[in-house]
Amino acid sequence: MKRIILFALAVIMTLSSVACTSETKATTTAATGASASGTTTSGEVTKQDITITYMVSQDQLQDAEIALGEKFTEETGIKVDYQVIPSDQYVNLLSTKINAGECADIFSSQGGQFDIVSQLNVEKNAVDLSGEAWASTVDPLAAAELSVNGKLFGQPIQDVSSVWAIAYNTKIFAANNLTIPTTFDEFKAVCETIKTSGVTPVYECVSDGWHHVLWFPEMGAAYEAAEPGLVDKLNNNTTTFSASPVMKQSLDQIKEMVDSGYWGDNYMSNAYADAAKNIASGEYAMVVANQGFGAEVEAIGGDLKAADIGYFVIPLVDNQILNVNPVGPSRFIYSGGKNIDAAKLYLAYIAKTENVQYLIDNVSKNNVLPFSGVQDKYSEIIKTFYSTYTTHGTVLQTTVKYVNPQWMEIGKELTAMILGDTSSEDVLKNIDKNRADQAAAAKDTAWDS
Amino acid sequence: MNEKRAYPLYFVYGALVLYVALCVIPGLIGVGYSFTDWSSYSDEIKFVGLKNFKTVFSADENYLKYLNNTLLFTVVTTICKSIIGLALAVLLTKKIRGLNIHRAIMYMPAVISTLIVGMIFKSILNPQSGLLNEFLRSIGLGSLALKWLADSKIAFWSVMAVDIWKGVGYIMTIFIAGIMAISPAYYEAAEIDGASGWQKFRSITLPLLMPAISVTTVLNVLYGLKVFDIIYSLTNGGPGYATEVLYTGVYKEFSKGRYAVGTTLSSVMFIFMLIVGYFMIKVMTKEEVEE
Q1: Within this chain, do residues A130 and A112 fall inside the same structural domain, yes or no?
Q2: B255 pLDDT exceeds 80?
Q3: Is residue A11 assigned to a domain?
Q4: Amino acid B80: pLDDT
Q5: Which DSSP state fits A47?
Q6: Based on the domain organization, do A148 and A180 belong to the same domain?
Q7: Domain for residue A185, yes or no?
Q8: Of A26, A150, A161, A253, which sits most exposed with the smallest number of CB within 10 A?
Q9: CB distance A121–B241 less than 8 Å?
Q10: Whether the predicted pLDDT of A85 surpasses 60
Q11: B158-183: per-residue pLDDT in tens?
Q12: Based on the structure, what is the number of domains in chain A?
């Protein structure tokens, strides 16, 4: 009896192992056949049994893209595993993964012609996308910030026509007879009036680590206007941040705002993801946001509509220059990934004109995306905002080297300054020190002496 | 050589080769790299002497603060976990109703992932909508509703409190095992002599628990010096640099591509742990000899 049972077990084991082998072979064949090309000679899309991974910061992935990803899976069989990382941890984690050689098939990161070389080393870590059919549809200004030596390495994720400005509740302004401030003193007066009326003037969210930083480098054009030649001198290492009076003034004004209570009590624990909700509730009057913010507020479903949200430039150091930035979050394909072809198919699918349009129409903060052949959705209030400021200037993190890579570090420095643990002079000195460290590591000749 | 040993020496070679290849050699290479300018920006690696060590110990850098924070974390959590763990162990070896349920509840945090604990407490300690502050406000103690993780003066203490909450159950379990191994005869004899509860604890429980206390102290100190995950998940070193410790510093240096400075910090920590470990083992061995 025992022998019979043993024999039966042996037969079952053999059969099951054979069955498993056959199944593996079938899967492998399907995958191999498909990975050679996404389509058959008849033009039908071949279904592929592949899962691509996409590592992305939480603020850079929208529901509309996930919906497109599902359609992409239906059409190609390629599954997309979105690895969404909290924003405050994203930069460190991405750099660690790239440096360790274990990154996801696709990753998101800020573009910028300096940073994609010094931080991402895209020529080594990312796949050249110049040959892709969609590459020629990317807006030339945006493409320049994602290219090295004429090769395109990234695909824009967000609207880069938008600028980070102060979005405000026009109803609160009207109720208090307030007009758009043009100087810092006027801005303080506006904040004071709003605060007196029982509303917190500014919604700020320090815990995210990145948002409160915007107040400082977005003023780059104002710094250049106050100290002509500043950008070139910083890039040539002939001056420093700590030697710039206007930058110190800017930081001191940020501290003054916080100390005056204009950021309220909860700025340390607020999250940017809740900004639209808090503005819609009427608890806060203003927030630094881009021009899709009005639509986000309307989407909350309260009394406020998109047309009730107006915009004005951040008036620190009396700035009246529109701060433009052709750089934004972008998708890159990791060169060490195993599914490069499938990842290229995903980017090609997203970049189809109808899908780009879908992302414009279904993502509140996108008024347009930097691709040709799409329709923008600028409202009147946004057009008015852009036409109010005739002088345009580029932000500091795009024009000055080694600023954007230390964004989160600057965030920590600013937090320490706001909490009174450090001074504005020390913040600027530490930015200089971090720049010098990065320049030395990158063997930048301007920092040799 | 011990002639009575049960197994020949070559039995150890396999394990020794693996240990040397996977632990000792990479460790030594790491120490070696701390004398170079290894970074993600360049494929060339040059010898730079003690430059990285000067950077780490420079007053311009925050690393000394990270070291101070690491030591403060180690000392505070070790003392608190030991005292609270011991108190709970003494309580939970008495004959009380639902003893095992109490033990299970106290041990529960130890089995939850640190990252999950971090996320839960981030929510509980939210100054605006967190459970703790809502509770304090509801019972009229609104003045005690602090910015637990957002105020740089108390954030590190909040992190330590969460870590103590998470780790105390594990330490308690070791103490319970130690207390249960003590013969009841000692307590019976002490009772006959009219000893009070405190006298029994001081003269019987505590001395006989010393081996367990030594073990938990070593575990707590090593854990404290290596702490990373609870801080990463609760504050990520913030607000500002208030809760940075050495290993969050190492992580950030690696993520910035400054490998050499990262390995230098690790090397400093390695040497420090070696010194601490040496003295702790010496003290423990001394106690064993005295026994």
Answers
A1: yes
A2: no
A3: no
A4: 96
A5: P
A6: no
A7: yes
A8: A150
A9: no
A10: yes
A11: 999 999 999 999 999 999 999 999 99
A12: 2
**What is each CA distance from B198 to B85, B99, B192, B209, in whole angstroms?**
17, 22, 15, 15
Answer yes or no: do B240 and A209 touch at CB < 8 A: no
Whether residues A114 and A224 fall in one domain: no
Q: How far is the C-alpha of A111 from the C-alpha of A336, rounded, in Å?
A: 19
Question: CA separation (Å) from A307 to A168, A170, A182, B49?
Answer: 11, 9, 21, 62
Q: Is A342 in the same domain as A317?
A: no
- Predicted confidence (pLDDT) at residue B291 exceeds the cutoff of 60: no
> What does pTM read for this prediction?
0.74
Indicate if A259 and A347 belong to the same structural domain.
no
Query: Are A415 and B239 within 8 A, CB to CB?
Result: yes
Residue A216 C-alpha, separation from nearest chain B C-alpha, in angstroms: 16
Residues of chain B neighbouring A99 (CB-CB closer than 8 A): 40, 254-255, 257, 259
Residue A377 lies inside a defined structural domain of this protein:
no
Burial-class residue B59 by CB neighbours within 10 Å (0-12, 13-18, 19+).
Answer: exposed
Contacts of A421 in chain B (CB under 8 A): 152, 240-242
Which range of residues forms the domain containing residue A431? 165-324+386-447
Query: Residues in chain B whose beta carbon is closer than 8 A to a beta carbon of chain A?
Result: 37, 39-42, 60, 126-128, 147, 149-152, 232, 236-242, 251-252, 254-259
Mind listing the domains of chain B with CATH numbers? 13-290 (1.10.3720.10)
Is the pLDDT confidence value at A42 over 50?
no
On whether residue A56 sits in a domain, the answer given is yes
Residue B135, SS3 per DSSP: helix
Burial of A328 (0-12, 13-18, 19+ CB in 10 A): buried
* Domain of residue A118, CATH code: 3.40.190.10
Same domain? For A304 and A404 the reply is yes
Q: Which of A269, A281, A417, A448 to mutate to test the interface with B (most CBs of B within 10 A)?
A: A269
User: Does the pLDDT of residue A32 top 50, yes or no?
Assistant: no
pLDDT at A23 > cutoff 60: no
pLDDT, tens digit (0-9, with 9 covering 90-100), for A273-309: 899 999 999 999 999 998 889 989 999 888 899 999 9
A290 and A173 assigned to the same domain = yes
Say yes or no: A245 and A142 in one domain.
Answer: no
Chain position carrying tokens 């992190």: B159
Residues 6+ apart with CB under 8 A from B51: B37
pLDDT at A154: 95
Q: Does the pLDDT at position A9 exceed 80? A: no
**Per-residue model confidence (pLDDT) at position A4:** 58
Q: What is the pLDDT of residues A89-99, one digit of tens each?
A: 788 788 888 87
